[in-house]
Amino acid sequence: MGIVNMFQKSLYQQWLQKEVAPALGCTEPVAIAYAAAFATRYLKAPACKIHGYVSANLYKNAMGVTIPGTKSNGINLAAAIGSIGGNPELGLETLKGITPDMEKRAREMVNDGVVDIAARDTADFIYIDLTVQSAQDKCRVVVSGTHTNVTEVYVNDVKQDAGNNVRTVKEEKELPLFSVADAFNYITSVSPDEISFMLEAARINTRLSDEGKKHQYGLNINQIFKDAQNGGVLGDGLMSQVVIDTVAASDARMGGAPVPAVSNFGSGNQGIAATMPVVVVARYLNVSEEDLIRALAFSHLTAISIHSRYTRLSAFCAASTASMGAAAGMAWLFTRRLDVAGKAIMNMISDITGMVCDGASNSCAMKVATATMSAFKSVLLARQDVCVSPNDGIVTESLESSIDNLCRLVNKPMTYTDKEIIAIMTSKS
Questions:
Q1: Which of 371, 354, 69 is nearest to 247 (CA)?
Q2: Which residues of 56-65 are buried (b: 16+ CB within 10 A; e: fewer)?
Q3: Predicted confidence (pLDDT) at residue 170 exceeds the cutoff of 70
Q4: How far apart are CA 277 and CA 19, in angstroms?
Q5: pLDDT value of position 285
Q6: Residues 325-353: what's their mean pLDDT?
Q7: Dihedral, CA atoms, 315, 320, 325, 327, nearest 10 degrees?
Q8: Pairing label, strands 261-262, 138-144
C-alpha cells in the first residue's frame, strides 16, 4: 500500500464532505420542503399557493414516507410545511423545529386545494420545479442534480443571478471516481486527524438509533427483534446487535423522528447502513478511536465508490450498496485486510442484487435490516476465505468488474423496472 499523494487525499476528503452530511428525515420530501422554503424567502407576504412538478423518481421516494417532525406524509404537505416553517439555510435539515401549529396550517393549505405538485419524467433523477405565490408576488425555484442544488430562481418571472444576491448553489464539478482499493490505501495511510470528522457520523447516527429504541417509530422493527431476543426466539449475539442498532435508527428516521441522520449519497438510510454496523462491531472489539475513524471512512468511501457508478435514484435499493460499505468497514475492523473486504462485497453482490426500491416508507427499515444481515454474514464468510465463485451469476474474479456488473444492471435494465414501479405507485395515489 503506497503513500497517497495530496491530490488523492483532497479527492477523498471532497467526496466525504460532499456526500456524508447531516439530514433531518427522508431527503426526498425534505428536498421538496427545501425548495418551497427557498422560494418563500423571496416573497413579501405569506404563501397562499404552491404549484409545480418533481421528477418521477423523487415523487416515488417522497409520496409515502413520514415527514420529519410530524406523523404525516404527502408531497403537497411537504411543500406546504416547508413554505410555512422551513429554513433553507439548514439545507437537508430544513424542517428542524417544525411545530404542530405549522403542520396544522400546512394541512389547511393542502385541504383548501392550493398546493398542487405533479410527477413528470425528467432528464435528472432529482428535479424540482416549484412556484410559490403570495397575494403580491411569486417566486419559482428549480433544484436539480442533488437535493439542495438550486440552479434557477425567478422572482415575478424575472430570472435572478449572483449580481442580484441570489443565494443559488452552482452545480458542483464532477469528482473523479475511485476504486475500493483506492479507498483502502487512503484510509490506511491518511492521518486520522484529517478524517476525524467521521466520528460525527457515529455520534449522530448512534443518537438516532437510541431514539428509535426509546420510542415507537414506523414499524418498530428493532423492538420486535428485541422482544424476540428476550423470548429466546432470536439469539443475542453480535449479528443481532448489529441489526437491532442499525434498524432502530432507520425505524426512527422513516417514522418521522425529529432527530437528524448523517447521510451517504443524499440518503439518511444509506448513511445509517454505512455507519451503525461499523460502530457496533468497533464497540464489540473495543478498538481505538483511530481504528473507528479509519473503519468509518472506509465504509463510507466504499459506499460512495459503488454508488457513484450508478444513478443517484433508481429502482435498486441503495441500502444494499451502503451496506456493502459497512461490510468493508467491518471486515477492516476484524482483519485489516483488503482481500477480505473485497470477498465480503462480492458475497453481497451475489446475495442481494435485485432488491428493489419501491419508494421511501417505513418498510425501508426492513430493507436496511436485510442488507445489514447480508453484510454481516458476508464478512463472516470472507473471514474464512469463502467467496462466491466467479462462475456464479454476475460476479467475476475481479471485485471492480463485479461492482461494475451490478451497476450495469441498475443503469440499464432496471430503468424499465423503475418506470413500472412508479406507474404502480402513482396509480395508487
A1: 371
A2: bbbbbbbbbb
A3: no
A4: 19
A5: 98
A6: 98
A7: -160
A8: unpaired
